[in-house]
Amino acid sequence: MDAQVSYAFHSERKLHPEKFKNQLVNQSTYVKLGCTQGWFCASLFHPASRNIAQLAKVKIANKNGQWQDLDIPHSIRSIVCLNLPSFSGGLNPWGTPNPRKQRDRDLTPPFVDDGYIEVVGFRNAWHGLVLLAPNGHGTRLAQANRIRFEFRKGAADHTFMRMDGEPWKQPLPMDDETVMVELSHLGQVNMLATHDCRSRSMYDPSTPRHQDSAEEYDDNEDDSVTEGEEFRKFGAADTFKIPDEVDISHLS
């Protein structure tokens, strides 16, 4: 869903770069494309035969390293795979599961150094707008260190994908062949961050992993809450600026 809108945006900008001169124009163009592609009325404009579950067989490597099928609800039209709690300008699609879900489904907050990819699903554009709410999140599908999409001949000859903001049109099989796309955790590097940065390490002693109070967590998987903090853009200046008391000349 979001990759198709992004692909149309990039294609239009390549053809008419003079029309994209400021952020307001860019954002309004995104909204326009989302509307014209029918993602706000996805059940009418996008047949169920082209949903993720019908286009691909999805497998994940669980926390023990064993491959297993991932059951994708038939209403899911978009899947987002994350390795940090930031998406589309600083939104957090995964959020923080409440203690009950952490226990029952073996889920954790989206730590940046746990080696896991958070897999989140969305039904339509309205579902995506839930992320704009202070405690919104998508449908949590799984956490895994590897995920594999196996595309076979189906109702579409292509789909849309996006990696780190760069979209492309992915051809799908026209015969009995299989197109496989696999994402896996490769490595990590250290980064500077202030104490109030949203991204947290699983080894940070100040990071709460299990709390008794559920008021900061969600009680409903699809349409309730996650973190009670304000949204801020990951990488924005106020998030990563060096504190005034730190002498930058002594940093090594």
Automatic annotation (TrEMBL):
Entries under InterPro entries matching the protein = DGK (IPR037607), Diacylglycerol_kin_accessory (IPR000756), NAD/diacylglycerol_kinase_sf (IPR016064)
Pfam families for the chain = DAGK_acc
> Keywords in UniProt for this one?
ATP-binding, Kinase, Nucleotide-binding, Transferase
Q: Which SMART domains match?
A: DAGKa
- Biased region (Acidic residues) positions are 214-228
What organism, scientifically named, is this protein from?
Brassica campestris (Field mustard)
| UniProt lineage | Eukaryota, Viridiplantae, Streptophyta, Embryophyta, Tracheophyta
Q: Which PANTHER family match?
A: DIACYLGLYCEROL KINASE
Protein name (record):
Diacylglycerol kinase accessory domain-containing protein
A Gene Ontology biological process annotation? Answer: phospholipase C-activating G protein-coupled receptor signaling pathway
| Region Disordered: start-end pairs | 197-236
What would be an example GO MF term here?
A: ATP binding
Where does the Diacylglycerol kinase accessory domain start and stop, copy by copy?
1-167
Where in the sequence does UniProt note compositional bias of the Basic and acidic residues kind? 197-213
Say if the entry is tagged with keyword Ribonucleoprotein. no
Q: Which domain of life is it from?
A: Eukaryota
